[in-house]
Amino acid sequence: MEQHLSFDLGALLVFGKVVEARSLSKAATLLGMPKSTVSRKLAKLEADLGIKLLRKNTHQLTVTDLGEQIYGHAVSILTEANGVRALVEGSRHEPQGELRVAIPVFVGIDYASRVGATFLRRYPHTRLDIRLVDNMVDPVKDGFDVVFGTGPLQDSTLIARKVFDLDLFLCASARFVAQLAAPLTMPAHLDGLPFIDFGFCGSRKLTISRDDMRCEVSPQVRARANNFQVCKQYILEGLGVGAMPAQIICTTELREGTIVPVLPEWRPDPLAVHMIYPFELSFSTLISAFYDTAREIIVENTARA
After folding, report:
1. Residue 238: what pLDDT?
2. What is the pLDDT of residues 104-130, one digit of tens each?
3. Which of 168, 127, 132 minimizes the C-alpha distance to 147?
């Protein structure tokens, strides 16, 4: 195979990350290298190619027309590189190498740490980099192998495997329930109570179901957070009713009785959590092993609950 490259492929991938981040500093952080190194690689790439890829001023960074075309090739090269990596990993009997994983903060530190510890203990030749994120990230553009997320896929080149459904239940602290003037016996009773919201009431409506019946209620949102741990603490402090997932957050509190179910026959819609990764990594033994571990831990948590 002949090689006629007059530039560094690694610099091309650095250029791709700069385009995606629209910032040298952000790209340097994502790549784990000094900003000066990123600048040097870009300057060398432009010199090797004999063209201008970026326009920089004090306020913004823009890509030239030719730079945009070259960026498309950089993405293709990265995709092929991931394919090579997946092929090599697939030939190994035991998972080896590093796996970069992004997990939303709402899934919880306890679950993420249990999955990570079990995976590392079971596969001694692996390395794991887990980042808790508070917004949806792209596994390719943001430099991850695996991303946990919800909702439909926007990119058909990605694979999504459901890991679990978060089965939510309405709950409150035992103290809060004991102080109510009358017991909660029907959904309409929620309308007059303070509610700890994880985002389900963004439209001020919460849909709950029982058998084939569905009902909309409008609780008064007292507090909102994008982390179940924070919401749980509010509930424990007796600040209101909330919707929580038993499998990953409330197992201890339910067992001790500090958190109790409210209207147990009525449930919010479950929240499906998928493991998302590039199609090129479909045969990765690392990803398959991590998926199996993630599934195993959620089954254990459900049993504990």
Report:
1. 95
2. 887 878 889 999 999 999 999 999 999
3. 132
pLDDT of residue 158: 76
Which stretches of the chain drop beneath a pLDDT of 50?
Answer: 1
Q: Which of 222, 238, 130, 101 is nearest to 180 (CA)?
A: 238
What residues pair up with 194 in beta bridges, in sequence order?
220
For residues 27 and 56, the answer to whether their CB atoms sit within 8 Å is: no
Q: Which pLDDT score is estimated for 1?
A: 47
Task: Spell out a b/e string for 160-175, using b for 16 or more CB atoms within 10 Å of the CB, else e.
Answer: beebbebebbbbbbbe
| DSSP codes joined into one string, 4-15 | ---S-HHHHHHH
Using an 8 Å Cβ cutoff, are 101 and 145 in contact? yes
The Cα 237–Cα 123 span in angstroms is: 40
List the end-to-end C-alpha distance of the chain, in Å, as a whole number.
Answer: 58
H/E stretch holding 222 reads strand 220-224
Encoded tokens for 8: 């560094």
Report the Cα 273 to chain-centroid distance in Å.
9
- C-alpha 124: how far from its chain's center? 25
Residue-level pLDDT at 196: 93
DSSP state of 192: G
Dihedral pair phi/psi, residue 277, rounded to 5°: -155, 160
DSSP category for residue 106 = G
